C-alpha cells in the first residue's frame, strides 16, 4: 500500500510509492517546500533533510528559485512563478498562510494528501493535492484555487505543480518537438542556465511540442541512470518551464495557458488545474517509459486492458469520393484480409466533396447514402467487423448550413478578420450551447447508425480566439473550451458504453494524458511513411504506450514522401502499435492481399505482447545499425522482437542485441523456425535478428518459453 505520514515534530510529510519517496514540509514562513524526490526513505531519514533557513548571500538573491512546491509571485521570489495572481484592486502576489491538511486513508491502493492554504490578506484559498498508488511510482499532483471574496481575481499563471530536482553534477533535458507529419522528434540536450520554455499557444496540445519532460544528469542511458520526469494531462494551450539556477539547482513547473492569457475567478468560483504527474526511476529512460506505459494502461486509458482490433480506414482508397457502393466493396476486401474494424473517413456527410464545404452539417449525404448509413453499417457488421466513422465536431466550413445559421458560434473577435485554415473555422466549444449541440448530434449519430468507433479529428489551431458577449470571455475560453470538450466526450461515452474513440488532430496534434483519459487510442501522425514512422514512434514511446498508438500500412510510393518500401517492412513497422491498414485494397494484387492476410494473422498472434507487454528499445532508429524493439510478457513466458534494416553497407558489423524481460535460465523456442535459445545467451551474450539481405529488410521473431535449464 502507498503510505502518507507526517512527523509531528518537524512537520515533514512523506509520501511513499512502491520504489520511491517524496517529502515536503511547511517552512517558517508558511510556504510549502520540497525536501526529497527519489529512492525510498523512512520518516526519520526524511526529517534529516530539513535544513535551517539561511540568510541570502546578498541583498540581490532573495529566496532560492527552486525548492518550493508551488513558487508564487511575491516577496523576494525572483524565479519562475507557478502562481501569479492579480486582485481587483490591482495588487499582485500571494503570501502563504497554512489553514490545514487532509489525508484520505489509502483505499483500493490509492492515497491522497491535501495541503490547504490561503493568502494572508485576500480571501484566495489554495489547496495542493498529491495522489499516490500502490502499483506505480507515478505521483499525481494538482492545485485547486477558490475565491472566497466578493471581488474578481485574475489567475495570470496557475500551474498545476512545480517539481524540484536534487543537486546534480549536470542536467540534461529530454522532450519532443516537431511539426505536422513530423511529430514526436526526440531531443536530448544539456539544460542551459536560465529558463527553458516548452509551450503550445495554439489551443491544442500541438504537433510542435509534447507536454512532458524528463531530466537526468547527462549520464542516463536506456537501461541505467536516474531519470526524473513529469507529464501534464491537458489538451489545450499549455506551458512547461524548466529552470536551471546559478546555485546548481534545477526544476520545472507546468500548467494550462500561455503568456497573455489568464483564468478569471469570480466570487465563490473554484478552478482545479489538470494533473501534472511526476515519476522518478533509477533504471534509465527505458524503465521510465515502461513505468509511464503501465500507469497509462492502468489509470489513464478507459479500456487499457482491452485488446484493440485490426482497423481499416478508407481515406487513401476513396478520399472525399465516398458512397455506399465503394465502401461496401472495400469492406468485403478488408474482411477477407482479417480486418476487425472498418472506418469510413471524411466525405460521407452534407455537401462534403472537398475540404471547402460541409463541415457542421452532420447528416449522411442523401445522393451517396440514400438510405442513410444503416445499410453500410449492417454490411460491415454482417462481415464480422465493427463499424467506425470519421467526425470533426469542433469545426465548421463557412460554406455550410450550420455557419449560415450560427455565424456567432465560431471563435472570433469583433472587427477582426476570421482567419480560415484548411477552409474552416473553429467552433467555440467554450459555449455550452455549442457543446450541447455537438453532444446531441453525436449521440444520435452513434445510436441511429450502429456506430462502434469514432475517429475524432481536429484539423486546425485557434485564431482570433475571442468570445464576444461573455464576461471575461476572451480569457475564459482557453480553459472552458477544453473542459467542455472533455464533457462532451464523457457524456458520449456514458451514453454508449461500447463506443470506442480515437483522438486525432491532423495526426498527433492532440496527444496527452488528458485526452487519453477519454479516448482509447491516438492517431500519431498523418505521415504513414514506414521509415519516418520509426523515428516518430521512437519519440512517441518515450511516454505513451503501444496500446495508444494507431499505426497504418499504406500504399507506395508514399503520398507524402514518395518513398517505396516492401509491404512486409510497412507491416512490421505498423505492428509496433495498433495495426491498421489504410491502402487502396481495390488496387492490391492477389499476392499483396495474400501476404497482407498472412501478416494480419501474424500480428493477431502477438498483439497481446505489443499492446500490453513491456517495451524495450534495443537499438534506436538513427544511424546505420538495425532498429530493434522488443515486447516482453510480464511473466516472461514469451517475447516479440521486431527489427528493420534500411540498407546494407559492406563491412558494417552485425552487432547482437541483448534481450530483456526473459526468465533467467529458461529456454525459448522461435515460433517460426523451431530453433531453441537459452535465456542466458539471449540476455547476456546477445541475439542477432535474422534479417533478409537487401534494402528495407525487416523481421519479426516470436520467442516462446518452453522449459527451464537444470541448475
**Number of beta strands:** 36
CATH architecture descriptor name of the largest domain: Alpha-Beta Barrel
Described by strand count, sense and barrel closure, the largest sheet is: 8 strands, parallel, barrel
Proportion of residues in β-strands:
25-35%
Q: Residue-averaged pLDDT, rounded?
A: 96
What is the total domain count? 3
Low-confidence stretches: none
Structural class: alpha+beta
CATH class of the largest domain: Alpha Beta
Q: In which range does the helix fraction lie?
A: 10-25%
Task: Please state the CA-atom Rg, rounded to the nearest Å.
Answer: 27 Å
Question: Strands of the largest sheet, in order across it?
Answer: 21-22-23-26-27-28-29-30
Describe this structure in words.
- Helices cover 21% and strands 31% of the residues.
- The protein has 711 residues and is of the alpha+beta class.
- It folds into three domains: 3-299, alpha-galactosidase from lactobacil brevis (Beta-galactosidase, Chain A, domain 5), CATH 2.70.98.60; 311-610, Aldolase class I (TIM Barrel, Alpha-Beta Barrel), CATH 3.20.20; 617-708, Golgi alpha-mannosidase II (Immunoglobulin-like, Sandwich), CATH 2.60.40.
- The strands form seven sheets. The protein has an eight-stranded parallel β-barrel with strand order 21-22-23-26-27-28-29-30, surrounded by five helices. Strands 5, 10, 13, 16, 17 and 18 form a six-stranded antiparallel beta sheet that branches.
- Strand 7 (110-119) and strand 8 form a beta hairpin.
- Helix 7 (432-449) runs parallel beside helix 8 (473-495) and helix 11 runs parallel beside helix 12.
- The protein is globular.
- The two termini are 35 Å apart.
- The mean pLDDT is 96.
- It catalyses: Hydrolysis of terminal, non-reducing alpha-D-galactose residues in alpha-D-galactosides, including galactose oligosaccharides, galactomannans and galactolipids.
- InterPro entries: Aldolase_TIM, Alpga-gal_N_sf, Alpha-glycosidase_related, GH, Glyco_hydro_27/36_CS, Glyco_hydro_36, Glyco_hydro_36_C, Glyco_hydro_36_N.
- Substrate binds at residues 180, 345-346, 422, 455-459, 504, 526.
- GO terms for molecular function: alpha-galactosidase activity.
- Belongs to the glycosyl hydrolase.
Amino acid at each position: 500500500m502507498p503510505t502518507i505520514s507526517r512527523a509531528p515534530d518537524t512537520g515533514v510529510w512523506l509520501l511513499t510509492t512502491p520504489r520511491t519517496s517524496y517529502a515536503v514540509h511547511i517552512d517558517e514562513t508558511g510556504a510549502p517546500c520540497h525536501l526529497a524526490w527519489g529512492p525510498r526513505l523512512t520518516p526519520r531519514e526524511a526529517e534529516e533533510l530539513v535544513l535551517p533557513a539561511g540568510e541570502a548571500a546578498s541583498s540581490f538573491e532573495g529566496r532560492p528559485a527552486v525548492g518550493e512546491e508551488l513558487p508564487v509571485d511575491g516577496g523576494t521570489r525572483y524565479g519562475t512563478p507557478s502562481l501569479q495572481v492579480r486582485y481587483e484592486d490591482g495588487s499582485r502576489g500571494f503570501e502563504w498562510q497554512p489553514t490545514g491538511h487532509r489525508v484520505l486513508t489509502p483505499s483500493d491502493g490509492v492515497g491522497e494528501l491535501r495541503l490547504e492554504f490561503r493568502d494572508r490578506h485576500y480571501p484566495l484559498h489554495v489547496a495542493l493535492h498529491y495522489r499516490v498508488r500502490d502499483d506505480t511510482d507515478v505521483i499525481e499532483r494538482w492545485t485547486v484555487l477558490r475565491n472566497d471574496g466578493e471581488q474578481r481575481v485574475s489567475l495570470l499563471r496557475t500551474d498545476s505543480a512545480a517539481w524540484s530536482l536534487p543537486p546534480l553534477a549536470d542536467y540534461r533535458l529530454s522532450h519532443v518537438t516537431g511539426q505536422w507529419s513530423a511529430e514526436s522528434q526526440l531531443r536530448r540536450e544539456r539544460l542551459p542556465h536560465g529558463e527553458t520554455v516548452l509551450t503550445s499557444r495554439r489551443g491544442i496540445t500541438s504537433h510542435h511540442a509534447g507536454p512532458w519532460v524528463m531530466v537526468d544528469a547527462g549520464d542516463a542511458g536506456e537501461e541505467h541512470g536516474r531519470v526524473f520526469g513529469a507529464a501534464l494531462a491537458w489538451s489545450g494551450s499549455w506551458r512547461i518551464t524548466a529552470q536551471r539556477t546559478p546555485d546548481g539547482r534545477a526544476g520545472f513547473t507546468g500548467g494550462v495557458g500561455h503568456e497573455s492569457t489568464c483564468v478569471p475567478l469570480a466570487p465563490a468560483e473554484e478552478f482545479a488545474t489538470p494533473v501534472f504527474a511526476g515519476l522518478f526511476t533509477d533504471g534509465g529512460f527505458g524503465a521510465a517509459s515502461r513505468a509511464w506505459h503501465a500507469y497509462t494502461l492502468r489509470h489513464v486509458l478507459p479500456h487499457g486492458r482491452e485488446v484493440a482490433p485490426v482497423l481499416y480506414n478508407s481515406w487513401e482508397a476513396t478520399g472525399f469520393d465516398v458512397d455506399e457502393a465503394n465502401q461496401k466493396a472495400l469492406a468485403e476486401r478488408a474482411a477477407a484480409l482479417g480486418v476487425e474494424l472498418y472506418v469510413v473517413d471524411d466525405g460521407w456527410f452534407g455537401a462534403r466533396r472537398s475540404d471547402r464545404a460541409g463541415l457542421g452539417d452532420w447528416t449522411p449525404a442523401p445522393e451517396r447514402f440514400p438510405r442513410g448509413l444503416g445499410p453500410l453499417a449492417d454490411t460491415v457488421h454482417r462481415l464480422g467487423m465493427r463499424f467506425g466513422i470519421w467526425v470533426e465536431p469542433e469545426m465548421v466550413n463557412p460554406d455550410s448550413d450550420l455557419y449560415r445559421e450560427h455565424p456567432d458560434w465560431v471563435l472570433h473577435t469583433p472587427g477582426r478578420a476570421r482567419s480560415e485554415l484548411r477552409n474552416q473555422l473553429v467552433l467555440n466549444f467554450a459555449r455550452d450551447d455549442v457543446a450541447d449541440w455537438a453532444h446531441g448530434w453525436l449521440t444520435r449519430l452513434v445510436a441511429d447508425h450502429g456506430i462502434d468507433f469514432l475517429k475524432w479529428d481536429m484539423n486546425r489551431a485557434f485564431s482570433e480566439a475571442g468570445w464576444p458577449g461573455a464576461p471575461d470571455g476572451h480569457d475564459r475560453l482557453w480553459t472552458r473550451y477544453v473542459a467542455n470538450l472533455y464533457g462532451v466526450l464523457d457524456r458520449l461515452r456514458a451514453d454508449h458504453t461500447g463506443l470506442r474513440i480515437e483522438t486525432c488532430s491532423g495526426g498527433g496534434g492532440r496527444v496527452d494524458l488528458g485526452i487519453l483519459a477519454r479516448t482509447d487510442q491516438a492517431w500519431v501522425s498523418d505521415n504513414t511513411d514506414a521509415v519516418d514512422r520509426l523515428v516518430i514512434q521512437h519519440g512517441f514511446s518515450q511516454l505513451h504506450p503501444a496500446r495508444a498508438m494507431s499505426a497504418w500500412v499504406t500504399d507506395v510510393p508514399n503520398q507524402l514522401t514518395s518513398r517505396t518500401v516492401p509491404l512486409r517492412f510497412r507491416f512490421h513497422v505498423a505492428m509496433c502499435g495498433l495495426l491498421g491498414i489504410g491502402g487502396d485494397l481495390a488496387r492490391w494484387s492477389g499476392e499483396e492481399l495474400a501476404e497482407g492476410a498472412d501478416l494480419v494473422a501474424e500480428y493477431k498472434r502477438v498483439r497481446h505482447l505489443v499492446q500490453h507487454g513491456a517495451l524495450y528499445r534495443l537499438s534506436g532508429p538513427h544511424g546505420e545499425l538495425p532498429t530493434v524493439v522488443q515486447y516482453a510478457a510480464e511473466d516472461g513466458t514469451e517475447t516479440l522482437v521486431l527489427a528493420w534494416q534500411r540498407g546494407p553497407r559492406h563491412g558494417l558489423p552485425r552487432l547482437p542485441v541483448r534481450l530483456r524481460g526473459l526468465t533467467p535460465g529458461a529456454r525459448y523456442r522461435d515460433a517460426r523456425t523451431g530453433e531453441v535459445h537459452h535465456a542466458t545467451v539471449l540476455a547476456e551474450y546477445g541475439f542477432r535478428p535474422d534479417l533478409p539481405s537487401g534494402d528495407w529488410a525487416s523481421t519479426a521473431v516470436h520467442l516462446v518459453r518452453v522449459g527451464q535449464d537444470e541448475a
